[in-house]
Specification:
By secondary structure, this protein is of the alpha+beta class. Helices cover 39% and strands 19% of the residues.
Length: 372
């Protein structure tokens, strides 16, 4: 799509977030889910919406320089980008630049070129989304920062969804007022601009509304995220299952994995895994971790069950970092010495269960050993 590719060439950022789409039974209980599909028609509609929002922002801000409701997005803080910079430099020897949206775009283009698998680049896009500042509504008479960093637009607003966003209704009213004064060709003769050039009481009132709009927008984002997590916990408490994932990083303490179907980045603790599976040998290098398990006959015997306490082996199994197969079988089936190796950018299975308060992720051993 030409207009989409042209926008990216002009410096708009390609960030990504994944939305889960749930299948429900007749009682409204989740029985399955998929990542919400994005089709070419979605991209086409998105581009025309962006053009409409940008055009309206340019017109109303010319008509009412100090009274327009626009939407801005600040550049990310460099401290928040440090993890992404380290990741790109460590694994691909690429220096990320944050001086402008165009510089970020070209950095991402170089990174995408050297990353061999799209899932890994998708994980980076999700990580990039998390470090971005939150876009916000503002009154033009009360702010000097108008630019939208992620879109690389000088002026931007929300105009296209008045049926679900009240800020769009205000923008529609401002557009109608501008058209009534200056005509509908989108051109403002600045000599005709009268009121609205300076700070006034209306600007103060609009700024208060913008603060409220920003708070409600943040609350709705949290509500959507919490709703998704609630349904995922409910689903995996009823139907645990193994999902595809990719190892995207090793930190000082954790193995970082990305799950494409949920868009989640999860952390698993290798030190905890080493203790729980009774390693005979554990080796860690920059690009992989290797576990050599003690044979079953030499493993420590479980503690006897004491009154009021569950069997310790049962407790360990519930919090284990590993399961034997995609059905969630425990490690009792390991009767011989087993060598496990987890390398950077490996594609592995994660077994997901839930106690309805949190999601639990475990490595599926069969996916770690299938190609070894």
């Amino acid at each position: 799509m030409h207009i989409r590719s042209a926008r990216f060439e002009n410096g708009s950022l390609r960030l990504r977030s994944v939305q889960a789409s749930f299948q429900l039974n007749e009682r409204g209980q989740p029985i399955g889910f998929t990542a919400y599909p994005i089709r070419e028609s979605n991209y086409l509609i998105e581009e025309f919406m962006l053009l409409a929002n940008m055009s309206v922002a340019q017109y109303i801000s010319s008509a009412f320089p100090g009274r327009s409701l626009l939407r801005c997005h600040l550049a990310p803080k460099l401290s928040a980008c440090a993890t992404l910079e380290r990741w790109a430099k460590r694994w691909f020897d690429i220096e990320l630049e944050w001086s402008s949206p165009s510089a970020v775009h070209h950095s991402l283009a170089r990174l995408e070129h050297v990353i061999s698998h799209p899932t890994i680049f998708e994980a980076f896009q999700v990580m990039g989304t998390k470090v971005m500042e939150t876009a916000r509504y503002f009154c033009t008479g009360c702010s000097s920062s108008w630019r939208h960093f992620a879109l690389n637009f000088e002026k931007y607003t929300h105009f296209t969804s008045p049926i679900r966003r009240y800020p769009d209704i205000i923008v529609h009213r401002q557009l109608q007022e501008a058209i009534d004064r200056f005509g509908n060709d989108g051109i403002v003769i600045h000599e005709q601009v009268r009121n609205g050039q300076t700070h006034d009481e209306f600007c103060d009132q609009l700024s208060k509304w913008c603060t409220h709009f920003n708070e409600r927008k943040k609350a709705s984002t949290y509500a959507q995220s919490d709703s998704t997590q609630l349904f995922l916990r409910k689903l995996f408490s009823l139907r645990p299952q193994a999902l595809d994932s990719a190892v995207v990083d090793f930190s000082d303490r954790f193995i970082i994995l990305y799950i494409p179907s949920t868009g989640d980045l999860v952390q698993l603790d290798p030190e905890r895994a080493r203790k729980e599976i009774q390693c005979e040998k554990f080796e860690r290098s920059e690009k992989c971790m290797e576990f050599t398990l003690v044979p079953l006959e030499k493993r420590r015997k479980p503690f006897k069950k004491r009154r009021g306490l569950k069997n310790k082996s049962e407790e360990e199994n519930k919090s284990s970092v590993f399961v034997l197969d995609e059905n969630g079988s425990n490690l009792d089936g390991l009767s011989e010495l087993l060598h496990l190796k987890i390398s950077i950018f490996d594609h592995v299975k994660l077994y997901l269960t839930s106690n309805q308060t949190s999601l639990e992720h475990r490595f599926v051993i069969s996916s770690l050993t299938r190609s070894r």
